[in-house]
Design brief:
The chain has about 270 residues and is an alpha/beta fold. The chain has eleven helices and eight strands. The chain is globular, with a radius of gyration of 20 Å. The two termini are about 40 Å apart. It binds 3-methyl-2-oxobutanoic acid (KIV). 3-methyl-2-oxobutanoic acid binds next to strand 6.
Length: about 270
């Protein structure tokens, strides 16, 4: 099976091919995604919220990201695996950022890392890209900035902040990122950024004109029905319902002595 590479992702934009991206955090889910034709698996720090139950992504540690990335990378014969750099793993110094990016490649087995932030993170992106670690940027609604933003709010609604986000996009591309996630921005702004950049944009809550799209796997599979989902999420399955049904049937079988049956015994 041919592995998806960073140059191929860049080529997909040139050829006008849309780039399907999903998050995954475990071996079992990554194995399914890898054999379903997804181009990139993002090991997002959203793992902290959807797998560990944290209220934000802020508590996620490097060790947790290495653990999730290693599990996902082991399952991927084909997908490009990109690992999120968690909060405070790249903000303190460029040297620390390089070391931590290196851990996600060396210990986690990722093919690249993702960093939130625009102009202010350009130097860090440049330093990591310069040691041949591919970097995916992430601008607009950046979940690690939840306290500054005052919640998970759509960014770039007015002219001034839209201009700032366009500047962020240009700075991240110029610093050497091979692609950029555009999260939670108006569709016309994402369209303008996508037309301006030569590297692919991957949208989440950024409309249809991005070069690719990403969703949090647990959201699109209907695995967190206790949460109110943002408007941009399309739910493609009700796995919570499927799992609940199976668990209830198992419980009943055990309680009523139907499981294990003869064929499950040695
Ligand atoms: O952490 C994550 O899953 C992400 C995506 C939503 C882009 O950053």
């Amino acid at each position: 099976m041919k592995k998806v590479t960073v140059p191929e992702i860049i080529k997909m934009k040139r050829e006008g091919k849309k780039i399907p991206v999903l998050t995954a955090y475990t071996y079992s889910m990554a194995r399914i995604l890898d054999s379903s034709g997804i181009a990139i698996i993002l090991v997002g720090d959203s793992a902290g919220m959807v797998e560990a139950g944290y209220p934000t992504t802020l508590p996620v540690t490097m060790d947790e990201m290495v653990y999730h990335t290693r599990a996902v990378a082991k399952a991927c014969a084909r997908c490009l695996v990109i690992a999120d750099m968690p909060f405070m793993s790249y903000q303190v110094s460029v040297e620390e950022a390089k070391k931590n990016a290196g851990r996600l490649i060396k210990e986690g087995g990722a093919g690249g890392v993702k960093i939130e932030g625009g102009v202010r993170m350009a130097e860090t992106i440049r330093a990591i890209a310069s040691i041949d670690i591919p970097v995916m940027g992430h601008i607009g609604l950046t979940p690690q900035s939840v306290h500054r933003m005052g919640g998970y709010r759509v960014q770039g609604r007015d002219e001034k902040s839209a201009e700032k986000i366009l500047d962020d996009a240009k700075a991240v591309e110029e610093a050497g990122a091979f692609s950029i996630v555009l999260e939670g921005i108006p569709a016309p702004l994402a369209e303008k950024i996508t037309a301006t950049l030569s590297v692919p944009t991957i949208g989440i809550g950024a409309g249809p004109h991005c070069d690719g799209q990403v969703l949090v796997l647990n959201d699109m599979l209907g695995l967190n029905r206790d949460k109110k989902l943002p408007r941009f999420v399309k739910r493609y399955a009700d796995l919570e319902g499927v799992i609940k049904g199976a668990v209830k049937e198992y419980k009943k079988d055990v309680e009523e002595g139907r499981f294990p049956s003869k064929k499950h015994c040695y």
